[in-house]
Specification:
The protein has seven helices and 15 strands. The longest helix has 14 residues. It is 21% helix and 29% strand. The strands form two sheets. Strands 8, 9, 10, 11, 12, 13, 14 and 15 form an eight-stranded antiparallel beta sheet that branches. A seven-stranded mixed beta sheet has the order 2-1-3-5-4-6-7, sandwiched between helices. It is of the alpha+beta class. It starts with a strand and ends with a strand. It is elongated.
Length: 277
């Protein structure tokens, strides 16, 4: 039985997540359901895509991913089921798939057309769960819909290299639960233009000249505790997805909050890297 994952902006206060799981278990008592996140900012397609893009490959091939963000069907937004990278995704055609699969082409896409289906204010429960259970039983995409070729595309902001390769203009891609700020500058891009040079990462009025491999690298354990950098200090590192991230070391122990709070940053704000001549 394939795993079924859930990614939504429903939060945890209301009954929605519980109802979805209950409906799946009613249809498939032996199902395995995994929550990727239910705390996506409401209707935030880019945030949803970042979470899914960095999570789905951790699951076995054949996993079914229900995407419940901005999922209402309209005259301009239909419901889709598709096979991508040996995984299934069930979602509204709101552009999220184009952000998840920037480098992977979908193998098959169908517009969901279930018999005797009425319009619903809760399509994740009334539509997506039906499709997920069908696929989990070994059913095919062709049974739940007709071929669809007009997949909506959204282009995420990408870093720009200027000044003859001496400057990378990036932006804030995501802010996590700790207030850590994830930029859209990947290690591969940074390394391609650094070429061994010194650099300065600039954001708001802060400048950073070192990027760490892990959070605790900010601490010089050879120094006495009173002389070390530590909790409350700003650092940059490569996160688990390879993106440059700004963080306040152990920010939950301090009143300053995370890097987003300290620097006053939000989605799409600028992150600039300048390399020395």
């Amino acid at each position: 039985m394939p795993i079924i994952t859930l990614t939504t902006d429903f939060g945890l206060k209301d009954h929605f997540v519980g109802a979805i799981k209950g409906h799946i278990y009613k249809e498939l008592p032996e199902a395995t359901i995994v929550d990727i996140s239910h705390m996506v900012s409401p209707f935030h397609i880019q945030e949803c895509a970042y979470l899914l893009k960095n999570a789905y490959r951790a699951f076995p091939e054949g996993t079914i991913h229900i995407v419940g963000v901005d999922s209402e069907k309209t005259s301009e937004t239909t419901h889709l089921a598709l096979s991508v990278d040996n995984h299934y995704f069930i979602t509204a055609d709101n552009g999220v798939i184009s952000l998840i699969t920037e480098t992977v082409k979908p193998d098959k896409v169908v517009e969901i057309q279930l018999p005797n289906l009425e319009e619903s204010p809760f399509p994740v429960l009334d539509v997506f769960v039906q499709v997920a259970c069908h696929l989990a039983r070994g059913g095919t995409l062709e049974v739940v819909g007709k071929p669809f070729s007009g997949l909506r595309s959204i282009k995420e902001l990408t870093p720009t290299v200027t000044n003859n390769g001496d400057t990378i203009l990036g932006s804030v891609l995501y802010i996590d639960n700790y207030g850590n700020v994830v930029s859209n500058i990947h290690k591969s891009l940074f390394d391609a233009y650094r070429k061994g040079r010194k650099f300065t990462l600039e954001v708001r009025n802060k400048k950073i000249t070192q990027i760490h491999k892990k959070y605790s690298d900010i601490i010089n354990f050879d120094l006495e505790k009173g002389q070390r950098r530590g909790p409350g200090d700003l650092l940059a590192l490569y996160n688990s997805s390879g993106y440059i991230e700004l963080a306040i070391y152990k920010s939950n122990l301090n009143t300053v909050g995370g890097a987003a709070t300290l620097l006053g940053l939000k989605y799409r704000d600028s992150v600039v890297i300048n390399f020395s001549k």
